[in-house]
Design a protein that fits this description.
GO terms for molecular function: fatty acyl-CoA hydrolase activity. Belongs to the thioesterase PaaI family. Keywords: Hydrolase. By secondary structure, the chain is of the alpha+beta class. The chain has 3 helices and 6 strands. It has one domain: Hotdog Thioesterase (Thiol Ester Dehydrase, Chain A). Strands 1-2-4-5-6-3 form a 6-stranded antiparallel sheet. Strand 1 and strand 2 form a beta hairpin. It is globular and about 45 Å long.
Length: about 140
């Protein structure tokens, strides 16, 4: 794990409790690229011992968000769209998720994301759009 990946993982675990809960590890972050690892745990599985599709989408959303973060020239970002095609059931972990920025515009970033098992088999592929926030941050209504 490189220094940037260590920093991003630490920040995310402080800011986004789902990352800590799901035990995701940030392996690599470079400009326009991110790779994370997800363990195989029965708590993340659906019937039949395969990783739940919602967990796969969450991992892909997080990975695409990290890749976007690496090129974000604004102050925040949100997922605008995420389309995922599930190709194979995933049950051989740990799993690797890679996100690669394929286009950065003024307010949006497009990321291609793959979810693979320990043998390198692609279980899902996705395409996501992240909206870059330039002038205010997104916060939950705490009232």
């Amino acid at each position: 794990m490189d220094d940037l990946a260590r920093f991003v993982e630490s920040l995310l675990k402080q800011e986004e409790s789902i990352i800590k809960y799901l035990d995701f590890k940030v392996l690599e972050v470079n400009k326009g690229f991110a790779r994370i690892e997800i363990p195989y745990k029965k708590e993340l599985c659906r019937r039949g011992g395969v990783i739940h599709g919602g967990v796969i989408m969450t991992a892909m959303d997080i990975t695409g968000g990290i890749a976007t973060f690496s090129v974000n020239d604004g102050i925040d970002q949100v997922t605008q769209e995420l389309k995922v095609n599930f190709l194979e059931p995933m049950y051989k972990g740990p799993f690797t998720v890679e996100g690669k920025v394929i286009r950065k515009g003024k307010t949006t970033v497009i990321v291609e994301i793959t979810f693979k098992d320990v043998e390198g088999k692609i279980g899902a592929i996705g395409l996501g759009t992240w909206y870059i926030i330039k002038d205010k941050s997104i916060e939950a209504n705490k009232g």
